[in-house]
Amino acid sequence: xxERTPYIAANWKMxxxxxxxxxxxxxxxxRIAATQSDVVLCAPFTALTAVVxxxxxxxxxxxxxxxHEEDSGAFTGEVSAPMLxxxxxxxxxxxxxxxxxxxxxxxxxxxxKVAKALTAxxxxxxxxxxxxxxxxxxxxxxxxxxxxxxxxxxxxxxxxENVVIAYEPIWAIGTGRTATPEQAEETCAFIRDVLRARGxxxxxxxxxYGGSVKPANAAELLSLPDIDGxxxxxxxxxxxxFAAIVExxx
Length: 250
Prior knowledge:
By secondary structure, this protein is α/β, with parallel strands linked by helices. The chain has ten helices and eight strands. An eight-stranded parallel β-barrel has the order 1-2-3-4-5-6-7-8, surrounded by six helices. Helix 1 (18-31) packs parallel to helix 2 (48-55), helix 1 runs parallel beside helix 10 and helix 7 (140-151) crosses helix 8 (181-197).
């Protein structure tokens, strides 16, 4: 089995001004200088340049939190792949549960976005996950397979290893319920099985867990065989907390 480098991504969501982002990066870099993991900072559009400039000379990568599937056009408020590439951004989150829920992002649009990101040499961080209703109805695997098949339908099997998959149990975010390490591992292993059935190099794909990862639970989650990293939300807003999660990954 190929060795998969741990992948720890900070999703700041709609947080941090330019000044706050710069302060965070300056505080984080000394704390993670020895890491062997891939560390990715997913900043809001306004802070991307500041983060990119401060990470030069380090192994830290920068990601946007969304992008449009077209290179240009009459799409007010949107940002394209060429715009991100021009800023030296290397990756992009696609299909986050909040984008799906609040902005009606569809699997059809995501299939085009994943393909566009790869064409532009941007690393897609594709988010998938089931709702509380789906989990309680025993439909987790059905939902995840449907999302994966639809969202990856625009790419060839050989391209799958260039996509990072982030599993977000929506039912465990803000509900008071918590996914156990066993549930997280079982679901990430299922995702890898779906990818393997598509004919791609599934053992090369990094699969992240994105359900309330914190310094207290990071080491246990990241030690599981099919969890290759984390998409960190709230705990990524504090440089010390995020550094502790990076350290837990090795």
